[in-house]
Design a protein that fits this description.
Elements: E1 2-10, H1 16-32, E2 36-52, E3 55-67, H2 71-81, E4 85-93, H3 95-105
Antiparallel strand pairs: 1-3, 1-4, 2-3
């Protein structure tokens, strides 16, 4: 089992329920194929750096998961077949990236808010 991070840009015409349904679709695909979700973050609607399929915005979703190495090909095929997916990237995480993501999720890199005294 290797650690991976997946980022997908979905078409911006999805409703909130459709966006949640497509996230659930891919999390269940990972689980069905012997993988395990570590963390997922829906970033929501963001502007794109350049138009993709004549769209200037997209719904971003980032997922960190553990899976067997041969699973990524199945995942790529599903993402390429899905008309709601505009772009995707899968990155293999080394132990330092996994450690960094864990610290970031636990708030180790957040800056303390300054107290404003009147």
């Amino acid at each position: 089992m290797q650690n991976y991070e997946l980022m997908v840009i979905f078409t911006p015409v999805l409703s909130e329920d459709e966006f949640k349904a497509v996230q659930k679709k891919y999390t269940s695909l990972i689980a069905e194929n012997g993988g395990e979700m570590v963390h997922e973050t829906p970033w929501g609607l963001k502007s794109l750096a350049f138009p993709i399929r004549k769209k200037t915005t997209g719904l971003y979703w980032v997922a960190e998961y553990k899976a067997p190495t041969d699973f990524n090909e199945k995942l790529k095929v599903q993402l390429l077949r899905d008309e709601q997916s505009m772009r995707h990237i899968i990155v293999k995480l080394d132990k330092y990236a996994v450690e960094y993501n864990e610290k970031r999720r636990n708030g180790a890199f957040s800056t303390p808010k300054e107290k404003v005294e009147a």
